[in-house]
Recover the amino acids of this structure.
C-alpha cells in the first residue's frame, strides 16, 4: 500500500512539476493518518488542525521569530484570493479562516468556501489549484446571520475536508484539487448554514451548524470519511424524552426552534475519547419570556463521546439567556498543577457573557471563573461554588439577573455590557503551556437591546427569529487579555482602539493578533508590550498562524473584513467604515 | 444632407435606449415594465434589509419596515429613497441630499445625529421612480411571499425559493413542471 502510494504520489508530483506549476521546489505528500493528527504538535513546522492541535491551544513551538528578532519581520509574499462577492443579504464576503499547512503546502478558504492549495516552498507562494464549490449564494447568503464566512479546512488521508455556507461537507483530492465526494449535512431551507472548519476525529469529520437567529434546533454531526455516511448527530436541544427537555417549560414548543447552534470548531481529549464543543444562544435571542426554563444545552460547553455522540456532561454559563450571550467558543484543554500534587484537567472557555471559565473536563464541574472584560453590568458576578451568575434562581422560569439592564417585556430598551457580540466572539484564544498564560481576543463593549415580543405566528423558516435587535450607540474597543491559568486571575491587558475580530497565535515568547483597522501586531508574551506592527491596509478578521518550510519560519494571516461587524455593528466603530472589502493572504518572515 | 440628419436621429435614439432606464424598460416591455426597477432594487441592496420579498423584519440589523404592508404613496416612496429616514438605518440614495438639497426641510446640520446614512450607491431620479414603480407593482399590498414571486425575483438558478414550493404549490400555477409531478 505504502509503496503504491509513494509511486502514485511521485508520478503526480512529476506530472505537476512538468506542467510548470510547482516550479523549482520538490516535496512529497503523505497521507494524514489518525496518528499524525493525534501527535500534530510533534510536527513543529506544520499546522494540521484548525486550532493547531486537539487541545485547541494555537501554540506553536517555532521560535526563530522571537522577541529579539521580531523587529525584523517583513512581508515575504502575499496572494490575492477571491470570494469577495456578495449574495443573499450580504454585499460582500470576508476572510475568517485559519490556514492549514502540511509539509510546505498551505490550504486556505475564502468566505464562499473555495479552497486554495498554495505551494509555500522557496520563499514564495504559488497557487497550485482552487476548488470552487459553487456555493448557492442566494440560498445560503439570505440566512447567514453574520456574514459570508468560512473558517478553513481539515486534512484526512489524501483529502482536504471543508464546509460550504450552503451546508455541504466536501472532500477534495489533495493533489489534484478535484472534488472526491460531497455530502449535504445542513439544510439552508431550515435556516441552517455552516461557517466553521471541520474537526477530524479518528476517521470522522465533525460538523457544527449556524442558524440560532433563524429558529433552528442545533446539532453536532459526525460523518464517517470512509463510508461518507453519518455516524451520529446529537441535537443540542433535547427531544421530549431526553434529559434536559424539562428545562423548556413553555407551552409553545419553543425548543423546536430554540437555537443552540455550534458554529465554532471544538476540541478533543483523546485520553477520554471526549469531544468538547461550545453551544450557541437560545432563540429567540432576547425574548427569554417566550422560553421559560434554563433552555439546555444552549449557552453551554458540551462533552460528547466521540464514537457515539452521547452527551457526557455539560456546563451552562447563562441559563435562560436574555442577552444573546452564546457559548459557542472553543474550549481549550489544558493540564495545570492543582492542590496536593494533583493535576487539574481543565477546559477553558471565554464566553460572550464576559466571563472566562475553567471547568474540570473529566466531570464538567466548575473550577473558577472571572470577568475578562473591563465592564460587566448584567450580573454582579459568579457564585464561587457553582459559577452561575449570583442572581440566578433555579426556581424561576424567567431569569432577570440584574433586572435594571436586562431586556424584558417590561423593560424593552436597555443597555448591556458586554454587548451582544461579547466579550469574546468566535475569534480563537491561544494558550502558552510554558507560561501557563491564556490569551483572549476581547471585544470591550456595551450595546443597546430593543426587545420585541415573539409571536409564534411569525416563526417562519428562513426568517429572523431574534425577539428584538441590537443598536450601537456606544463606541466599542478591544484588548488582548492574558489570564494566568494557575491562579485564575488576569495577568495583563493590551488595549486596542478596535475590537479584536481575528483571534490569537501564541509562540514561546510572542503573541500575535490583528485589528480590523489593518494592523498585525506582535506582543511580548509576558508583558504584552507591543514589539512589532505592520499595517496590511485591510481589515483583519482572521487568526494568525505560523509554520516552517525549507527550515524557515513564517507567520501567515488572511485579511479581508467581512463577518457580522461591518453590516450590523459598524456604528460602534465609525472609523472602520472606511475599510474596503478585500481578500488577501499575507505571509511574513525574517 | 437629409440622409445625415436621419443618421443623427437614429444615433440619438440608440443612445437613449442604451443609457436610460426607461429605454431598458421599454425593450423589456414584453416581460415586465418594472424589470428596470427590480434591477435597481437589487443594485441598491434594498434586499440587504428589506429582503427580496420586501417584508423586512427584525434581526441583528434592527427592524426594516415591511414594504408589503407599507401605506406610502409613490411620491412618499420616492422621497424616502431620495432622503432616507432620519434616525433610522434607511440610507439616502441621492447625491447632495441634505447638502445641496434639503430633505424633510432639513440640512445636514439640522439633521444632526438623526442624519441617515449615505447609501453605497447613488441613484438617478429615473432609477428611483423605477424602483418605486417596482415596489408598487410587485410588493406593496401583497400577502405572504409565494414561489412564483420568488422565482420571478431570483430566476431558477438558486434553491433560495425551495421553501415556498410546497407551501405555495397551489398558489404557483405558473410552475407547470412542478404541477405535473405527483
Amino acid at each position: 500500500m505504502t509503496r503504491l502510494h509513494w509511486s502514485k504520489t511521485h508520478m503526480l508530483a512529476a506530472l505537476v512539476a512538468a506542467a510548470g506549476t510547482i516550479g523549482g521546489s520538490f516535496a512529497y505528500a503523505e497521507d494524514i493518518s489518525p496518528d499524525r493528527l493525534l501527535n500534530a504538535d510533534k510536527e513543529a513546522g506544520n499546522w494540521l488542525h484548525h486550532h493547531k492541535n486537539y487541545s485547541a491551544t494555537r501554540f506553536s513551538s517555532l521560535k526563530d521569530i522571537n522577541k529579539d528578532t521580531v523587529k525584523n519581520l517583513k512581508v515575504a509574499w502575499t496572494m490575492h484570493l477571491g470570494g469577495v462577492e456578495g449574495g443573499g443579504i450580504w454585499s460582500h464576503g470576508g476572510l475568517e479562516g485559519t490556514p492549514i499547512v502540511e509539509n510546505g503546502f498551505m490550504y486556505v478558504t475564502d468566505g464562499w468556501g473555495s479552497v486554495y492549495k498554495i505551494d509555500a516552498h522557496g520563499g514564495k507562494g504559488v497557487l497550485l489549484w482552487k476548488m470552487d464549490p459553487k456555493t448557492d449564494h442566494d440560498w445560503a447568503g439570505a440566512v447567514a446571520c453574520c456574514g459570508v464566512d468560512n473558517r478553513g479546512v481539515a486534512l484526512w488521508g489524501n483529502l482536504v475536508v471543508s464546509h460550504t455556507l450552503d451546508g455541504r461537507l466536501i472532500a477534495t483530492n489533495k493533489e489534484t484539487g478535484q472534488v472526491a465526494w460531497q455530502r449535504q449535512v445542513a439544510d439552508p431551507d431550515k435556516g441552517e448554514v455552516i461557517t466553521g472548519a471541520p474537526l477530524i476525529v479518528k476517521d470522522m469529520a465533525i460538523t457544527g451548524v449556524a442558524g440560532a437567529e433563524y429558529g433552528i434546533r442545533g446539532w453536532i454531526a459526525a460523518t464517517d470519511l470512509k463510508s461518507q455516511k453519518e455516524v451520529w448527530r446529537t441535537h443540542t436541544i433535547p427531544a421530549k424524552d431526553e434529559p434536559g427537555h424539562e428545562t423548556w417549560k413553555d407551552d409553545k414548543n419553543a425548543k423546536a426552534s430554540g437555537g443552540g447552534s455550534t458554529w465554532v470548531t471544538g476540541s478533543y481529549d483523546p485520553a477520554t475519547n471526549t469531544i468538547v464543543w461550545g453551544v450557541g444562544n437560545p432563540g429567540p435571542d432576547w425574548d427569554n419570556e417566550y422560553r421559560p426554563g434554563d433552555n439546555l444545552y444552549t449557552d453551554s460547553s458540551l462533552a460528547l463521546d466521540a464514537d457515539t455522540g452521547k452527551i457526557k456532561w455539560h456546563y451552562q454559563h447563562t441559563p435562560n439567556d436574555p442577552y444573546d450571550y452564546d457559548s459557542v467558543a472553543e474550549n481549550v484543554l489544558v493540564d495545570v498543577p492543582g492542590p496536593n500534587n494533583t493535576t487539574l484537567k481543565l477546559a477553558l472557555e471565554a464566553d460572550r457573557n464576559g466571563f472566562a471559565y475553567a471547568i474540570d473536563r473529566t466531570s464538567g464541574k466548575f473550577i473558577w471563573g472571572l470577568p475578562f472584560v473591563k465592564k460587566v453590568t448584567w450580573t454582579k458576578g459568579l457564585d464561587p461554588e457553582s459559577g452561575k451568575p449570583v442572581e440566578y434562581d433555579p426556581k424561576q422560569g424567567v431569569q432577570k439577573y440584574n433586572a435594571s439592564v436586562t431586556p424584558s417585556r417590561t423593560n424593552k430598551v436597555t443597555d448591556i455590557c458586554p454587548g451582544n457580540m461579547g466579550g469574546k466572539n468566535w475569534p480563537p484564544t491561544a494558550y502558552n503551556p510554558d507560561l501557563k498564560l491564556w490569551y483572549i481576543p476581547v471585544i470591550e463593549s456595551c450595546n443597546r437591546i430593543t426587545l420585541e415580543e415573539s409571536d409564534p405566528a411569525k416563526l417562519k423558516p428562513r426568517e429572523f427569529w431574534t425577539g428584538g435587535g441590537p443598536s450601537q450607540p456606544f463606541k466599542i474597543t478591544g484588548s488582548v487579555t492574558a489570564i494566568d491559568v494557575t491562579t485564575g486571575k488576569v495577568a495583563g491587558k493590551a488595549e486596542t482602539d478596535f475590537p479584536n475580530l481575528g483571534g490569537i497565535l501564541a509562540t514561546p515568547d510572542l503573541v500575535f493578533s490583528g485589528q480590523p483597522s489593518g494592523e498585525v501586531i506582535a506582543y511580548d508574551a509576558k508583558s504584552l508590550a507591543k514589539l512589532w506592527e505592520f499595517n496590511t491596509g485591510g481589515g483583519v478578521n482572521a487568526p494568525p498562524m505560523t509554520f516552517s518550510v525549507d527550515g524557515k519560519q513564517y507567520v501567515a494571516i488572511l485579511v479581508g473584513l467581512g463577518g457580522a461587524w461591518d453590516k450590523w455593528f459598524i456604528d460602534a466603530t465609525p472609523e472602520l467604515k472606511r475599510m474596503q472589502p478585500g481578500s488577501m493572504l499575507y505571509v511574513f518572515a525574517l | 444632407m437629409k440622409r445625415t440628419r436621419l443618421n443623427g436621429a437614429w444615433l440619438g435614439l440608440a443612445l437613449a435606449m442604451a443609457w436610460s432606464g426607461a429605454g431598458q424598460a421599454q425593450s423589456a416591455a414584453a416581460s415586465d415594465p418594472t424589470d428596470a426597477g427590480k434591477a435597481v432594487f437589487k443594485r441598491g441592496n434594498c434586499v440587504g434589509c428589506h429582503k427580496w420579498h420586501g417584508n423586512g423584519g427584525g434581526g441583528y440589523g434592527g427592524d426594516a419596515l415591511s414594504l408589503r404592508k407599507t401605506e406610502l404613496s409613490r411620491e412618499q416612496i420616492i422621497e424616502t429613497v431620495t432622503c432616507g429616514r432620519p434616525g433610522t438605518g434607511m440610507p439616502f440614495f441621492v447625491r447632495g441630499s441634505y447638502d445641496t438639497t434639503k430633505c424633510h426641510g432639513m440640512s445636514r446640520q439640522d439633521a444632526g445625529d438623526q442624519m441617515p446614512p449615505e447609501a453605497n450607491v447613488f441613484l438617478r431620479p429615473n432609477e428611483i421612480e423605477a424602483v418605486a414603480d417596482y415596489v408598487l407593482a410587485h410588493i406593496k399590498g401583497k400577502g405572504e411571499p409565494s414561489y412564483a414571486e420568488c422565482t420571478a425575483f431570483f430566476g431558477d438558478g438558486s434553491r433560495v425559493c425551495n421553501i415556498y414550493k410546497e407551501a405555495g404549490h397551489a398558489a404557483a400555477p405558473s410552475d407547470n413542471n412542478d404541477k405535473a409531478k405527483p
User: Anything to note?
Assistant: Helices of chain A lie at 2-18, 34-38, 137-141, 565-569.
